[in-house]
């Protein structure tokens, strides 16, 4: 496996070239990360067609917005995975493929293998994040994980956790603030 720092430098170099409309750099960037991005899209969507569409849309956004990337938005890989994640969630919402607590698809989305996001998090300080997540209350941790890793909306979370939407929003907000404080230590 390539050293993470070397990989990030390579991705940064490719992004800079893509920002200058270098098609060959864009092709190399695609070859380098498309499989990881598709894995994330598929894990979120649970549908190959939707994952493929999200992947394509994500790369179109990367092509058009590569010049807007800067290091305070995270590593280049994290930035591109975030674009893919949000594009997948947007498409899911647009197609009203909503997941609820009783939805059978949630059982089938569980994949015991580590995904690309799992590897990135591990490399980027997963021990610290895990430790900080352990400091949260159960409802805060569950709310954050269901929201960010399963893509549930506040309404869906309220229904899944049998709690008022305002309470769910407070759990997420307070949990994220506690995570931020913990990670800044």
UniProtKB/TrEMBL annotation:
Signal peptide: none annotated. Keywords: Sigma factor, Transcription, Transcription regulation. GO terms for molecular function: DNA binding; sigma factor activity. Residues 29-95 form the RNA polymerase sigma-70 region domain. Pfam families: Sigma70_r2 (PF04542), Sigma70_r4_2 (PF08281). GO terms for biological process: DNA-templated transcription initiation. Residues 127-179 form the RNA polymerase sigma factor 70 region 4 type domain. Belongs to the sigma-70 factor family. ECF subfamily. This is ECF subfamily RNA polymerase sigma-24 subunit. It comes from Marinobacter lipolyticus SM19.
